[in-house]
Amino acid sequence: MNGRKQNWLSIAILVLTITGIGFYFRANRNLLDPIRQISITFLFVLILLRFVFLVLNGVILNLFVTRFNVRLQWREWVGLALVTTLGNYITPFSGGMVARATYLKVKHQLPYTKFTVLLGASYLITFSVASLIGIFSLLVLNEWQAQTFLLASFLGLVFLGVVVAMVFPLNWVPSGENRLIRTITAVLEGWQQLRADRELLWQLGVVTTLSMMLNGVAFWVAYRALGFDLVQFEEALLVSLSAVYSVILTITPGNVGIREALVSLTSELVDIGVGEGLLVALLIRLGTLASVFSLGPIFSVWLTRQIE
Question: Which of 166, 182, 84, 83 lies closest to 124, judged by CA?
Fold first, then answer.
């Protein structure tokens, strides 16, 4: 599929998802009532939490480039985290990542292929940490029903799949030009390099865990901001993990609609409710947008000047 067709597909899916959300709220007008009770304090805390979450993404980026002897200023790694997210919102199919890669190549001569191979392999760490946190949360809740068993099965399969990928011999992957095979090969090659660097592996594990816990706190705050005070932290943490797995389906700008659907589904699986999950997903997105669209353009101008 060429770039133009991909863009049209992305826009079409985006329009359909926004339309679907609109019809859902029109049919369930009572779900909009909690929005009126959101306080400025809760909004400020949520925006701050989302900003710190983005900063942690910058920390992860800095850890990776340091491995290639690239030393970024704090303004660079914070700015790149914000600009990457901003770019993903205004362009389809993760356009922000292209901007980040371009900056690192032009400014710091960091080869795009080497960086992306390691970055792709880092998703193995991300998914394994997310699965373990999710399973632990389910054990703490200890409220087993059909839907929670389904969620536990999914998390267990993801963790098992990651473990298999981590030990899978690279020479067993068939050769070919198929896009899926190339992606699998790149991830496995990256993992071979990543696991050899124990210090980087440990640092990534710690920061990733911290990032996911902070994301869970943001979701818990969002539930409380909307008046859903009975939602436990472990439940909010479980719902937040769906946003982690949504990166697999990066189709629309900022993954709008896709992430909301997964968050709503997970919210229903933990017996909170689809509508409640949708409201929380939109509130979380609002908190992210506040940071990205206020600071992102400023850092974008500053970073552009660094490579002129």
Answer: 166
Name the nearest CA neighbour of 266 among 280, 252, 255: 280
* pLDDT tens digits for range 260-269: 888 888 888 8
**Rounded mean pLDDT, 165-187:** 71
Residues in contact with 142: Cβ distance below 8 Å, sequence separation at least 6, in sequence order: none
Residues 206-262: tens digit of each pLDDT = 999 999 999 999 999 999 999 888 889 999 999 999 888 877 666 666 667 678 888
As a whole number of Å, the CA-based R_g of the chain is 20
Instruction: Give the whole-angstrom CA distance, residue 54 versus residue 214.
Output: 11
Q: Would you give the end-to-end CA distance of the chain in angstroms? A: 33
Residue 240 is which amino acid? Answer: S
Neighbouring residues of 233: CB distance < 8 A, sequence distance ≥ 6: 216, 217, 220
Structure tokens that stand for 224 in this block: 């409380």
Say which amino acid occupies 29: R
Q: What are the tokens at 31?
A: 């779900």
- Amino acid, single-letter form, for residue 233: F
Euclidean distance between CA atoms 169 and 280, whole angstroms: 41
Question: Please, are residues 166 and 191 in contact by the beta-carbon 8 Å criterion?
Answer: yes
Assign 69 to helix, strand or coil. Answer: coil
Angle 301-118-306 (CA atoms, 0-180°, nearest 5)?
Answer: 20
